[in-house]
Design goal:
The complex is a heterodimer of chains A (565) and B (237). Chain A has 565 residues and is α/β, with parallel strands linked by helices. Chain A is built from 16 helices and 19 strands. In chain A, strands 1, 2, 6, 7, 8, 9 and 16 form a 7-stranded mixed sheet that branches. A 5-stranded mixed sheet of chain A has the order 17-15-10-18-19. In chain A, strands 11-14-13-12 form a 4-stranded antiparallel sheet. In chain A, a hairpin with a 5-residue loop joins strand 8 and strand 9 (180-190). The longest helix of chain A is centred in the C-terminal third of the chain and has 25 residues, at 488-512. The termini of chain A are far apart. The model of chain A has no long low-confidence stretch (mean pLDDT 97). Chain B is an alpha+beta fold and 237 residues long. Chain B has helices at 30-41, 75-78, 102-110, 132-139, 149-153, 155-159, 165-176, 184-191, 205-209, 216-236, and strands at 2-10, 15-23, 60-63, 66-69, 82-86, 93-95, 98-99. In chain B, strands 2-1-5-3-4 form a 5-stranded mixed sheet. In chain B, strands 6-7 form a two-stranded antiparallel ribbon. The model of chain B has no long low-confidence stretch (mean pLDDT 96). Classes of the chains: A alpha/beta (565), B alpha+beta (237). At the A-B interface, helix 3, helix 4, helix 10, helix 13 and helix 15 of A face helix 1, helix 3 and helix 4 of B.
Chain lengths: 565, 237
């Protein structure tokens, strides 16, 4: 089957929804397809809890937000993009207000803000601790007002179509029917999210398998800074479910087994509200030095909210209370929550400039799948939802401008037929003696041991070898289900293939980078090395493994200085 | 300890029951049990899952006759060594536990579930004032995750497949009760038709099964009162 639209957006999360609205606002004449592998309101953005950063009130300033972001990023962020980002974020907050988002309010009815890690002003706008959920629902509802946004729910992208150096569309499987659909378009926006399921202990939804990143990478679009992966300090033990940074923003403490607020020793000024890389590293240090609290699920750190009182917890952190009760059997009003650092955010992604343009004409990337980069080596809490809103809009507008100035080119039938053959003749129902589930499990084990919070050269080289072994075994993977309709077995096998390629890019970048910066911390190179490494990594796909190149970081106002909190 | 997962399966043509023995650990959820089967016993088992923390609304299934979110239901809480697991009712089954939500989402769209304002200004939005008290009047209803549990037990939906259903009517009420909204009249029209609020049987089972305690039955009730007043007003004026 073949359909065509002016713009195809892949991914129905925050960034994709915002891009769709922006493109629809640009022109009523544009036909916009919004394709997602789940229903949009089932995307991973709904799991964002704590809030969205924006400069709204007196006392705060764009420069302060930008400086916090650049310093938090350990100076790897592109400062021109950061300066643009902080200026645009407030308007997005107000738009969502006008579209129905139930922002938490002050007594006089104005939009409230709370404290967050690494942000030196209380600038995080929030909707209780369900910020992402309400943002997604608000944007989704808003898309229903535009007749030129056409949704394709539960379509799984298998490939991008790029011809003569320009994007021509995408190919996807409609899950319900099992039909393969070629979407022809003048412009394609990738908004498929991060790659968090690379790791076993993770806050991510099951669906976040880096599809868009991997497909772009295989189509020779470079990935940037993949070695930088964020570990959030507080994942619920044992499930990894996110316990928002807002727990600490609202005044929660982290304690070790002696009851000590150990952050005093690591970040005396910001304490629990230092940036995530600093807090996660400190917690990990406590754990490996034997000051974690022992449990049947391994050692953990106590996230103590008991002093906040029931009223505040109910009002500001109701989801946290519900989740802690349901998934750990603990009421945070009564006792501390067991937490451990957890894989949480992909700082790297598809290489774009600050207008979400990739090196391929007509191909845009936005949200977590993209690396613009405003987060550099470490993202600040509440900057990711803000990024999705600001740069979702940018991607939508840029794609719209491009689509309005270009003609649709039809894709050759051969491309569709080849993809059909690759999927339904060669992949579907194939026999083999490797289980995709087993390969995924072992991949998670490698990532959780070799590419976790503390890394070192030897461990990473071992890990890299293991990833290559898994890739080799994957060639012999079995797909037990040979039917077409809603074949989640085959989809899973696709996803594991994507993740193996991405793991390789993460590993190659991490081994090559012989310094510590932000979330990439090496025991064998514990210092930041600006002389050699103040630069972005670009990983290019080749059949023989990733080829690495480097490009400079854009610096406008802020030279790198020592990073203390 | 092992628990029997007795699953009602459907392969597109025939439906049948199949049993799997699942080793259970303390705190294990129903969803983890389903993944255990998929990863170790039968990769072809189809079910939906995403966030695994009760926010995305993907994984509603029927367990021993009652719709629940698989991700936030502990196996031990069902208190049985054998679980009958089925797709939720009132939805067409696509495969195994996966049901067709397209109609459900179309009904949601039909009630105009978005804030309507006369001064909609995309380029230059301004901050609107809404006190915490004003927000309280609709907030609970904004927590619906569209999992379909309410619709699956609704007797009105069972007899009339075009009935808008509790989730859609709740969405309409959520915006009508929002002090920032100016589109009430349009929404009354959308829900007062032959397939609208008057079809509700007042069974209130929807509120009972809602995993997020959204109270759709209450929203439908409030909606009926307002719609009635709206109809009377239309006749008088």
């Amino acid at each position: 089957m073949r359909v065509h639209h002016d713009i195809v957006i892949v991914g129905g999360g925050l960034a994709g929804l915002r891009a769709a609205i922006a493109a629809a606002e640009k022109s009523k004449k544009l036909s916009i397809a919004l394709i997602s592998k789940t229903y949009p309101i089932r995307c991973h953005s709904v799991c964002a809890e704590g809030g969205t950063a924006a400069v709204l009130r007196e006392g705060d300033s764009f420069d302060l937000h930008a400086w916090d972001t650049v310093k938090g990023a350990d100076f790897l962020a592109d400062q021109d993009a950061v300066e643009f980002f902080v200026r645009e974020s407030p308007k997005e907050i107000l738009r969502l207000d006008n579209w129905g988002c139930p922002w938490s309010r002050t007594e006089d009815g104005r939009i409230a803000q709370r404290a967050f890690g690494g942000q030196s002003f209380n600038r995080t706008v929030f909707a209780a601790d369900r910020t992402g959920f309400h943002e997604v629902h608000t944007l989704y509802e808003r898309t229903l007002m535009y007749p030129n946004i056409v949704r394709y729910d539960e379509y799984f992208m298998t490939n991008l179509v790029i011809e003569d150096g320009a994007a021509r569309g995408i190919i996807a499987i409609e899950l319900k029917s099992g039909d393969l659909v070629l979407f022809e378009a003048k412009a394609v926006i990738l908004a498929t999210g991060g790659a968090g399921r690379l790791f076993g202990f993770t806050t991510y939804s099951h669906q976040v398998t880096g599809d868009g990143m991997a497909i772009a990478y295989r189509c020779r679009v470079p990935l940037k800074d993949m070695e930088f992966f964020q570990f959030h300090p507080t994942g619920l033990v044992p499930s990894g479910i996110l316990m928002t940074e807002a727990c600490r923003g609202e005044g929660g403490y982290l304690r070790n087994k002696d009851g000590e607020r150990f952050m005093e020793r690591y970040a005396p000024e910001r304490m629990e509200l230092a940036p995530r890389d600093v807090v996660a590293r400190s917690m990990w240090r406590e754990i490996i030095e034997g000051r974690g609290i022992e449990s049947e699920y391994g050692p953990y750190i106590a996230l103590d909210l008991t002093h906040l009182g029931e009223k505040k917890i109910e009002e500001r952190l109701p989801l946290i209370r519900e989740a802690a009760k349901k998934f750990a059997g603990i009421d945070p009003v009564e006792e501390p929550i067991p937490v451990r650092p957890v894989a949480h955010y992909t700082m790297g992604g598809v290489h774009t400039n600050m207008w979400c343009e990739t090196p391929v004409k007509g191909l845009y990337a936005t949200g977590e799948v993209a690396c613009i980069s405003i987060h550099g080596a470490n993202r600040l809490g509440s900057n990711s939802t803000a990024e999705c809103l600001v740069f979702g809009r940018v991607a939508g507008e840029k794609a719209a401008e491009y689509a309005l100035s270009t003609e649709l080119r039809h894709v050759d039938d051969d491309i569709y037929r080849e993809e059909e053959k690759r999927i339904f003749d060669e992949f579907l129902g194939r026999s083999g003696d490797e289980s995709p589930y087993q390969i995924k499990k072992e991949l998670n084990e490698v990532m959780d041991s070799s590419f976790w919070i503390f890394r070192d050269g030897n461990g990473m080289k071992e890990g890299f070898k293991k990833i290559l072994e898994l890739k080799e075994r994957y060639r012999n993977v079995e797909i037990a289900d040979n039917t077409r309709k809603f074949n989640t077995d085959m989809i899973y096998a696709f996803e594991v293939g994507f993740m193996l390629d991405l793991a390789e890019a993460v590993a190659a970048g991490a081994i090559a980078r012989t310094e510590s910066r932000g979330a990439h911390y090496r025991l064998d190179y514990p210092e930041r090395d600006d002389e050699n490494w103040l630069k972005h990594t670009l990983a290019y796909y080749t059949p023989d493994g990733p080829k690495l190149e480097y490009i400079p970081v854009t610096i406008t106002k802020w030279q790198p200085v020592e990073r203390k909190y | 300890m092992k628990v029997i997962f007795n699953i009602r399966r459907f392969d597109g043509e025939k439906d049948y029951w199949q049993s799997f023995a699942v080793p259970v650990f303390r705190g294990m959820t129903l969803l983890e049990g389903l993944f255990y089967i998929k990863e170790n016993l039968d990769g072809s088992l189809a079910f939906r899952a995403s966030c695994r923390m009760g926010v995305c609304g993907s994984c509603a299934v029927k367990v021993n006759g009652k719709p629940v979110l698989a991700c936030e239901t502990q196996i031990s809480s069902v208190n049985s060594s054998k679980l009958d697991i089925e797709p939720i009712d009132n939805f067409r089954v696509i495969k195994d536990l996966v049901t067709d939500f397209e109609g459900f989402f179309r009904k949601h769209e039909a009630v105009k579930p978005y804030l309507i304002r006369n001064d909609d200004n995309y380029e230059n939005p301004v901050e609107l004032i809404q006190t915490p008290k004003q927000m309280k009047s609709y907030y609970t209803f904004s927590l619906c995750i569209k999992c379909g549990a309410c619709y699956s037990v609704c007797p009105a939906a069972a007899t009339r497949s075009d009935y808008l259903g509790p989730a859609a009517i709740t969405a309409a009420w959520r915006f009508i009760a929002d002090s920032r909204d100016e589109g009430k009249e349009e929404r009354y029209e959308a829900v007062c038709g032959d397939n609208g609020v008057w079809r509700c049987h007042f069974a209130a089972e929807c509120s009972e099964v809602c995993p997020k305690k959204v109270e759709p039955a209450k929203a439908v009730q409030k909606m009926r009162i307002r719609t009635a007043l709206h109809a009377i007003k239309k006749v008088i004026l």
